[in-house]
Design a protein that fits this description.
D-Maltodextrin-Binding Protein, domain 2, single chain, elongated, 4-stranded antiparallel β-sheet, 18% strand, 5-stranded antiparallel β-sheet, 29% helix
């Protein structure tokens, strides 16, 4: 109401405000002054020189009322990070990519679950993506895994209706085939699985030392159940008429350890594997093993009646499917081919990301990241070797990001621009 009330110790009389109304007050330690509505000044207290009471001030230009300013807006609270459910394959060479994508998504602000908590094979992985239980899986092997897209869901739709293959993470990154003990192959001249199937002497020698000795068969180390390659091998056996060959299915690391022991001793063994992985640093084509060929490349006839086995064909329209540019020193059967290539019988797989459609639609930033990431065979090989030496996958991925920060930042910039 324009009146003034003062209080304090009043040692200098500065609290003795004359009764009046004031426009403004300037309070000091020993003197206080107030401006009255009639433009006169009143001061009180003991400070000297004292302002004369009732001093009239010169006319001042009226001061416009200050505009009412809008209150500062509350700072926006950061949005809750989007939670992403990540998965990874149940083969160790897929761990590096799973950790890499997790850390890249986290740099983009996503909250990503530990892929190790959702470790699955393709039989369960694609169902989980299609049903929305898992948002993405960076360990797809195509064309091998396209068969899983045909699986029917409870509502009658197919897995492929709900998932999308994204990007070009590692094109032709999965060179795959069978290895055979070098000394055994040279002794008996068996450089293809067809040779092994029809050579009785080689079969007898193989059968004495294989995983199921004495059954009259060559028991070869294949793939664990539900990896897809196990189904393809069954179709290959039926397609080529290898009546004397059977597939052994155990934990892959167990089979690898047994295969390595046999190869180093010179004992007969045949082992399915792929590259680039650390397995090839110990089973070394041209040293203790050879790549083994096959005379016929599997078509889409599905002779073993595997579920969606028509997708297992390893042929391509241009006729190159199932052959690799590997010379006779590592694949002796290449010497018999007009094109000089090794008839591995397998297409080099593309290792790609598969993601849930709704997740991709709601998260263009994540989709752009999946599309941007390109890995080289050399980099992934080094990462897998580091992992095989005991470095945890998360650490391998973190070191890779550090050493490749320039290209990583480019990927992240592309992803952010899409958001």
């Amino acid at each position: 109401d324009s009146s003034v009330v003062c209080w304090g110790s009043n040692r200098s009389g500065e609290s003795d405000a004359p009764g009046a109304r004031y426009i403004s007050i300037s309070a000091g330690g020993a003197q206080t002054c107030g401006l009255r509505p009639d433009n006169t000044l009143a001061c009180w207290g003991s400070a000297l020189p004292r302002v004369p009471a009732g001093l009239e001030l010169p006319e001042l230009e009226p001061v416009a009322e200050p505009e009412q300013t809008q209150p500062e807006p509350e700072p926006e609270q950061p949005a809750e990070p989007v939670r992403v459910v990540a998965g990874r394959a149940n083969w160790s060479s897929g761990y590096f990519q799973a950790s890499l994508f997790k850390q890249l998504l986290e740099e983009l602000g996503y909250e990503v679950t530990d892929p190790a908590d959702f470790e699955v094979g393709p039989n369960n992985g694609y169902l989980a993506i299609a049903q929305g239980d898992m948002d993405y899986w960076p360990n797809s092997w195509y064309p091998n895994h396209y068969a899983w897209h045909l699986s029917v869901l409870p509502d009658g739709t197919r897995v492929g209706d709900h998932v999308t293959v994204v990007g070009e993470q590692l094109i032709e990154g999965g060179l795959q085939g069978f290895l055979v003990t070098k000394s055994f192959a040279d002794t008996y001249g068996v450089y293809t699985l067809d040779d092994l199937n029809r050579d009785s002497r080689a079969l007898a020698a193989f059968d004495t030392a294989d995983p199921v000795p004495g059954n009259g068969k060559a028991d070869v180390f294949g793939c664990p159940e539900a990896w897809t390659c196990d189904n393809i091998i069954e179709n290959m056996i039926a397609f080529s008429g290898w009546e004397n060959i059977e597939q052994v299915q155990l934990d892959y690391e167990v089979m690898f350890d047994q295969a390595l022991t046999r190869a180093d001793r010179g004992d007969p063994m045949v082992f399915y594997t792929w590259t680039p992985t650390s397995y090839i640093t110990q089973l070394r084509p041209g040293d203790n093993v050879y790549w083994m060929g096959m005379e016929r490349i599997l078509d889409d006839s599905n002779p073993a009646d595997q579920v969606n086995g028509e997708q297992h064909t390893q042929r391509t329209a241009d006729g190159t499917g199932g052959y690799a540019s590997i010379g006779p020193e590592e694949c002796p059967s290449a010497a018999d081919q007009p094109n000089g290539k090794c008839p591995l019988g397998w297409i080099a797989a593309d290792i790609l990301v598969t993601a849930n459609n709704e997740f991709l639609e709601a998260n263009p930033t994540a989709r752009a990241l999946f599309e941007a990431v390109r890995l080289s065979h050399l980099d992934t090989s080094r990462a897998w070797v580091d992992q095989s030496l005991g470095l945890p996958p998360d650490s391998v991925a973190a070191l890779w990001i550090r050493d490749n920060r320039g290209v990583v930042d480019q990927w992240l910039a592309v992803a952010r621009a899409a958001g």
